[in-house]
Write a structure and sequence with these properties.
Number of strands: 15
Largest sheet: 6 strands, antiparallel
Oligomer: single chain
Number of helices: 11
Shape: flat
Length: about 450
């Protein structure tokens, strides 16, 4: 398996030997993402699960032939181990062709792992469990020779991660809260089984004396209160009117409101339900936990649908840098949620001409050394982007007509295309180039004076 092509061919041979009635000799590498329903006809898959299956097929290929350094390979194994810690299969509980591919490509490596790598404190326990499950489970029905299986010794577990008992954890937190409350009230928490009295439940002599003293104090206080003159009631102060809230200041219209970033397409496939769409996995520099992102090969990524199928060859989408609009409200496109938009240029329509959507189309390209997530702005404009653009305000629709390309094939912002921006507000009519934070200019291949959207 020296290359991805050889690996794919060998995988297809393995699938055909195990599922001869489902895999024909004419099945190709391009068919791999669609094979799950042939291998497991009683299982149904959502559109997102189909996309996820395709992603895991790519990951399994890279795990089998790691072209990065050892640290990167270990990071991928760690991400896979974490993913499997709460799942039986890659999709959760459903079997898929990706599970078989991962077993085929990773089992030889697991077979050579030391006991420490398998089940040590920093070992890949969940990967080992997954491999053992796939090679033995009737659900997959693999016909692997005994000598080719990964021999797993259940008695040779180097480190056992203690599972958290939900009931015990809840009880522990409840006790901690009670102790904290008692400490805040100045009360003393007694050891379990102790009471503030002598045996039999009767008060001690010390407690009796304390109670008598307290009773006497209360009687004296009551007598003094009866003899004391009544104090006049204080007049209630009139409530002052609350100051009115100041109206929220509107953010001035500016192309900086749009969150433009360098994106790195890690994977692009055909949309399973739309001939005109691609589904891309794009790293945009998001932090872990960002809404509408997921983890893929150790990076936070966004799933993005783009209407570029038939306009840009699929091979040109793979592994390339692009410019992404990252703060549009996510939309579901034929069953798959899209969390960004890829910027591309197309010829400007002439008066009376209709857009037939036949192209040509060219992707906006950042400088080669630009990093995923790097902020991109137009020269002459400054400001921070909105979190998520409010669709009702139509910020993108208002500003997009100003996005253009120059005679020099540079992408820029032409303020004359946006009537709402006036020169009297300190806005220059000179086209500002689209540049990265590090100063590089974004360009297109050949389309001058084109529309960018």
């Amino acid at each position: 398996m020296s290359s991805s092509l050889t690996s794919a061919k060998a995988l297809l041979d393995f699938l055909q030997s195990n599922y001869p009635s489902a895999i024909s000799s004419s099945t190709s590498e391009a068919d791999l993402p669609t094979l799950s329903h042939h291998l497991f006809p009683s299982t149904s898959y959502t559109d997102n699960e189909k996309v996820e299956t395709s992603h895991w097929l790519t990951t399994s290929s890279r795990l089998a032939t790691p072209d990065e350094d050892e640290a990167k390979h270990a990071e991928r194994l760690g991400s896979l181990n974490t993913h499997l810690s709460t799942r039986t299969t890659l999709l959760g509980s459903k079997p898929s062709v990706a599970d078989v591919a991962l077993y085929y490509r990773l089992a030889p490596a697991v077979k050579s792992w030391s006991p420490e790598e398998r089940t040590g404190e920093r070992g890949y326990h969940h990967i080992v469990r997954f491999i053992d499950f796939v090679q033995h489970a009737p659900l997959f029905g693999l016909s692997v020779k005994q000598e080719d299986k990964v021999d797993i010794d259940l008695n040779n577990v180097k480190f056992v991660h203690k599972p958290i008992d939900a009931k015990e954890e809840k009880e522990r937190k409840k006790k901690e809260k009670a102790a904290s409350t008692a400490a805040g009230d100045g009360q003393t928490t007694l050891p379990l089984g102790k009471v503030k009295s002598d045996e039999g439940g009767k008060p001690s002599k010390k407690e009796k004396a304390k109670n008598a003293t307290q009773t006497a104090k209360e009687k004296v206080k009551g007598a003094l209160t009866e003899d004391a003159p009544q104090q006049p009631k204080k007049e209630k102060k009139e409530k002052q009117a609350k100051p009115q809230k100041q109206p929220v200041k509107e953010t001035p219209l500016s192309p900086c409101l749009i969150d433009l970033r360098v994106g790195h397409i890690l994977k692009a496939i055909n949309h399973p339900n739309a001939d005109s769409l691609y589904v891309s996995t794009i790293a945009c520099g998001d932090q872990p936990g960002t809404e509408n992102t997921s983890e893929y090969e150790g990076q936070m990524v966004r799933t993005v649908c783009s209407g570029l199928n038939g306009l840009v060859p699929l091979e040109e989408m793979q592994g390339r840098k692009i410019i992404a609009v990252c703060n549009l409200k996510p939309v579901t496109m034929r069953g798959i949620k899209s969390a960004a938009m890829v910027l591309a240029a197309s010829p400007r329509l002439k008066a009376g001409e209709e857009d037939n959507h036949k192209g040509p189309v060219e992707l906006v390209t950042p400088p080669a050394d630009a990093k995923a997530g790097e902020r991109v702005i137009f020269e002459g404009w400054s400001g921070e982007p909105e979190g998520v653009l409010n669709p009702k305000k139509k910020v993108w629709e208002t500003l997009q007509p100003g996005f253009t390309t120059t005679e020099g094939l540079e992408v820029g912002f032409d303020v004359t295309g946006v009537p709402q921006l006036q020169e009297g507000d300190g806005v220059s009519k000179q086209t500002g180039k689209l540049v990265t934070s590090s100063g590089g200019t974004c360009t297109v291949k050949s389309l001058a004076n084109a529309v960018v959207r």
